TrEMBL record:
InterPro entries: Serum_amyloid_A, Synovial_Prolif_Regulator. The gene is LOC100718750. It comes from Cavia porcellus (Guinea pig). Keywords: Acute phase, HDL, Signal. Belongs to the SAA family. It comes from the Eukaryota. Residues 1-18 form the signal peptide. The lineage of its organism: Eukaryota, Metazoa, Chordata, Craniata, Vertebrata. The keyword Cytoplasm does not apply. This is Serum amyloid A protein. The keyword Signal applies. Major acute phase reactant. Apolipoprotein of the HDL complex. PROSITE patterns: SAA (PS00992).
Length: 127
């Protein structure tokens, strides 16, 4: 437990180092990371609720896009969460091809591109 807390702290410090120049502070970075995490969770729960075939990539892109709009902390949170999810699913036997497609959608959203590129026809407008 202490090791994992130490590792998370080190990742935060390393992640903040490049972004803490000028007016930015560790507190704004952590706030953005928290908000980005919330955006990612909202996209995940929306995906589960929608339960719509073919919408997986849309929700990946949307969660990453929303998180990245928060700032550098949101981008960092989106990357960490997306990479962890894909690694876990790979360990559980999910195919490399699907993982690569998910990561493509993740990067698309994080880069600020429109997540609607992946939106399937017929997905309710609520999402």
């Amino acid at each position: 437990m202490k090791l994992s807390i130490g590792l998370i702290f080190c990742l935060l410090v390393l992640g903040v180092d490049g972004h803490a120049k000028g007016e930015r502070s560790i507190f704004s970075f952590l706030k953005e990371a928290g908000q980005g995490t919330s955006d990612m969770l909202r996209a995940y729960f929306d995906m589960r609720e929608a339960n719509y075939i073919g919408a997986d990539k849309y929700f990946h892109a949307r969660g990453n896009y929303d998180a990245a709009q928060r700032g550098p902390g949101g981008v960092w949170a989106a990357k960490v969460l997306s990479d962890a999810r894909e690694r876990f699913q790979s360990l559980m036997g999910r195919g490399d091809e699907d993982t690569a497609a998910d990561q493509y959608a993740n990067e698309w959203g994080r880069s600020g591109k429109d997540p609607n590129h992946f939106r399937p026809d017929g997905l309710p407008s609520k999402y």
